[in-house]
Every structure is written in structure tokens, then in C-alpha cells.
Amino acid sequence: MKKEHLILTLCTLFAIAIPLVQSISEGPKGVEKWFKELPHKKQRVTKLHFYFHDTTTGPGQTAYQVFESNISSTTITQFGRTFMFDNPLTVEPDARSMRIGKGQGFFGAASFEEPRFLMNLNFVFTQGKFNGSTLQFLGTNPILNRVREMSIVGGTGAFRLARGIATAQTYFLNDTSSIVEYNLVVLHY
Ligand SMILES: *[C@@H]1O[C@H](CO)[C@@H](O)[C@H](O)[C@H]1NC(C)=O
Ligand SMILES: *[C@@H]1O[C@H](CO)[C@@H](O)[C@H](O)[C@H]1NC(C)=O
Ligand SMILES: *[C@@H]1O[C@H](CO)[C@@H](O)[C@H](O)[C@H]1NC(C)=O
Hints:
Organism: Lactuca sativa (Garden lettuce)
InterPro entries: Allene_oxi_cyc_Dirigent (IPR044859), Dirigent (IPR004265)
Strand order of the largest sheet: 1-3-4-5-6-7-8-9
Subunit structure: Homodimer.
Number of strands: 9
Protein name: Dirigent protein
Bound molecules: 2-acetamido-2-deoxy-beta-D-glucopyranose
Oligomer: single chain
Pfam families: Dirigent
CATH topology: AOC barrel-like
Strand content: over 45%
């Protein structure tokens, strides 16, 4: 599992073209064949590590408010206020470091009591052996906690039938942007 992580890091750092684990645009026949072969496939573990850059105002804005409730502006947790985002994923905290994909989806304030978001997004990978593959991410994010644990509930391409755990740790935060460090451990075939 260390190896997979290393391979992703290496091929993202140096943009080495590694053949795809499997074609990701095989169509319905290819997917059927893949399922037929499933009993012979070995489950594997892939570890991913990257930084997620969220910017809610200013020139580099990547997250935009799409709706709110009629109590968002009067509740301490801004209940219901929801942003749709298309956020870069990079190998280092520096936003100018190598991009390995995007985190696309929405987060919204889902608690009356504390700053806690519903997170619903896709990690869309664009580099190396995972180029074109995606992971589906769903969870509850108590954003002030040092470490938050959320679920990987599925995947496509190299990550078909994925399940896993993502941990998030805030690396940087101010009024307009945040950088979140993500560690993913993913079971897939
Ligand atoms: C919010 O909307 C609901 C239903 O439309 C209404 O009953 C309620 O009074 C509104 N609350 C506020 C604070 O405006
Ligand atoms: C990723 O895949 C797309 C579509 O197949 C291709 O156009 C692109 O060049 C690939 N990117 C890298 C870095 O391999
Ligand atoms: C927040 O940090 C970003 C990245 O360093 C910076 O561009 C932005 O100006 C900062 N915003 C505020 C309000 O300090």
C-alpha cells in the first residue's frame, strides 16, 4: 500500500505516463466483463495524500454560495448555507505545486449547534495511473476538530467498487480560503 502511494506521488511529481490499470471508457460491455471477472480479482489498498484548496471570495474564488435557508443569516452556525465548489487538489500545501485533480461538489452547514458541514463531493483525478478515475466522498465535517473522519462510498475507473476512509486536517485557514490536508485509505479491486 505504501507502493501505490509512492507511485502516485512519483508520477504526479514527474508526470510519468504509466499505462492505465484498466481502460476507463470501456462502455457497458467492458463493465459487464469486469464484473464477471470480479471473483478472480484481488482486493487492494491504495493510500492517497493531497491538499484541497477552498477559496470563497476574491480573484481565485473556487467555491460559490448556491443557496441558504431563511435562518442562515440569523443562526450562529449559518444553518443551511451551502457552497458548490471546484477545488484544486495538489501534492503540496503550496497552491502552485503539482495538481493531481479536483474536488467537485458541495458543502453546507448542517448543524444547529456547532460548525459542522455536510460534505458531498467527487475527487476527480487527472494525473498518472489514476487519471480519469474518481472517488465519491460523503460525510459529516465538524470543521473545528483537529482531525475529521469521513467516508469514501464508491469510485469509478481504477477505483470501481471502492470503499474507504478519508481523514481531513486543516492546514491553513483565514476568512477567505482554507487548505485542507487529506489522507485517504481506499479498498478497491
Ligand atoms: C422561514 O420560512 C418558513 C416557511 O416558508 C416560514 O414558516 C418561517 O416563518 C420563515 N422563518 C423566518 C425566520 O423567516
Ligand atoms: C489524462 O487523460 C486525458 C483523457 O484521456 C488526457 O487527455 C490527458 O492528457 C491525460 N493527462 C495526463 C497528465 O496524463
Ligand atoms: C487568506 O489567505 C490567502 C492565501 O494566502 C490570501 O491570498 C488571502 O488574501 C487571505 N485573505 C485574508 C482575508 O487575509
